[in-house]
Each structure stands twice: as structure tokens, then as C-alpha cells.
Amino acid sequence: MEMELSGTQPQLQHAGRGDRVARTREAIVSSTLTLAMEGEVAPIVRDIAKLAGVSARTVFQHFADTAELYVAVLGRVLTNLRGAEAQPASADSELEERISEVIGQRAGNYEKLLPMWTFVETLQRRSSEAGEQVTQMYTDNREQLAECFGQELTTLPGENRERTLNALAMALTPESWIVLRERLGLTVEQAREEWRFIVKAIFNGK
């Protein structure tokens, strides 16, 4: 019995260390995300460490530099967005219902993203990895729209199909939501209605 205990103790200690490392890393990422959501374009390590309850030195034990940390935060945000949009509207439902569901999903997601969009834009200009992640977000968005509105798109000739899909993908972007909410000063519901008008106009003009 003693031999079994002595054999498992190092494994338990290693597992415990691994859990602590994961918790610390999570605290750092979450704290950085919180600051970004509060409008910080480039959260500084001192503030991140204070919020996470660790030292600045600990932050750099987990991340080579702030760029690596910011990319990890962006990855978390985009993963959450993909998860929220993982269940597209049923392609068999009425067009009006699918439009409402697609707009509802994206309006909810982009409203959450709104406070930290400057952080995202700045990071993607500074990091090729971040730029690739953001590009993938737009690719995923376009593919989801193609699936959701497949029955309408398949009735169109090839060139019109692609142009209609591109118009939908361009209309339903974070930037479009930002223009409606911040530049035009619309409420969430007003912005949703404008999106609905735009999407219907795209299909009516196809």
C-alpha cells in the first residue's frame, strides 16, 4: 500500500500544478477580456495582473508578450461567437422566420462585441494570427448565411447567387452593426429593424 501511495503522489502533485497553471492562465485571459470589454484598446499588464490577482511577472510566465495574450483573448471571443451561431436557422422554415433568427443571433453577438471592437481592429492590424482569426469569422459568417438561405440562393444564376450572398455577408457584419448603433445612434431594436429591411431588400432585388 505504501508503494502505491508513493507512486501516485508525484502524479497528484503534477495534476495539482497543472490545475493551478490552467486557473492562473484563465484568470489572466478573463481579466484582459474584461478590460477590453470596458473599452481598453491595449490593456496594460499592471492592470491585467491586478484584476487577475497575480503579479506582472506571472503574466509573462504564461504569455511571451502582450500580443500573445491579446490573441488568446481574441480566440476566446471568436470561439464564443462561433458557438452562439453554431445552430443556424432551419433551411425549411419560412424566409421571414429565418431572417429574424439570423438577425437576432448576430445582433446579440455583435452588441456584446461592440465595446471591444476597437481592440479587435487594432489587434488584427498588428498580428497576422489575429488577422487570420478575424478573416475566418467572416468566412464562417458567409458559409452560415449560404446554408440558412440556401433555398433562395439556389434559384439564382451563378453570378447573381454569389453577389447576393456577398451582399448578405457584407450587410450582417460587426462593422455594419457599429454604424447603425454608434454612428447613426439607433437603439438595438431600431438597428435590428434596419437589418431586417436591408436583408429583405436584397432578396426582393435578386
Can you tell me about this structure?
Helices cover 80% and strands 0% of the residues. The protein is mainly α and 206 residues long. It is elongated.
Number of helices: 11
Structural class designation: mainly alpha
Run of helices and strands: HHHHHHHHHHH
Q: Which geometry do the CA atoms define?
A: elongated
Average pLDDT taken over every residue: 89
Secondary-structure topology with pairs:
Elements: H1 2-37, H2 45-52, H3 56-62, H4 66-84, H5 95-113, H6 117-126, H7 128-148, H8 150-153, H9 158-171, H10 174-183, H11 188-204
Helix pairs in contact: 1-2, 1-4, 4-7, 5-11, 6-7, 7-9, 9-11
Give me a quick take on this structure.
The protein is mostly helical and 206 residues long.
